[in-house]
Amino acid sequence: MLQNVGISHLPTFPPRRIIEREFLYLVTPIAKMTTKLADSKGRIVLGSKFANKTVIIEEIDELEVRIIAAAVIPERELWLHKNEQAMATVQQGLAQARSRRFSKKPPNLKAHKKLAGEIDV
After folding, report:
1. What are the pLDDT digits (tens) for 64-93?
2. Confidence (pTM)
3. Strand partners, 24
4. Which SS3 state, helix, strand or coil, does residue 86 take?
5. What are the angstrom distances between the C-alpha of 98 and each of 62, 74, 91, 103?
6. What is the dihedral of CA 34, 35, 41, 47, to 10 degrees?
7. Residue 1 and residue 43: Cα distance in Å, rounded?
């Protein structure tokens, strides 16, 4: 059974230094560190804010891992995120749709199909 042990009193990361009015202050970053107990299979519960989310587990070294919330882009849609012009066109179309600005004539599907066949994705 996994259990949340509590909030740690240990510092999170090395404190950052801030220079203010010629004085050097050590400021502890605003980061929450909790202590959890892994079960016999090495599992821990991340909590409800990570529920149903994809995460990246970054192994810093043998004793340290970093958990980062992630968004995954389907491979078939990756081209759009790599093509700035196409992404700008899509964003423009979405903005127009949100403001209820629609085309007055239907799209020419034959021309669009021909153009799509010519584009090297």
Report:
1. 999 999 999 999 999 999 999 999 999 999
2. 0.46
3. 19
4. helix
5. 49, 24, 11, 13
6. -30
7. 10
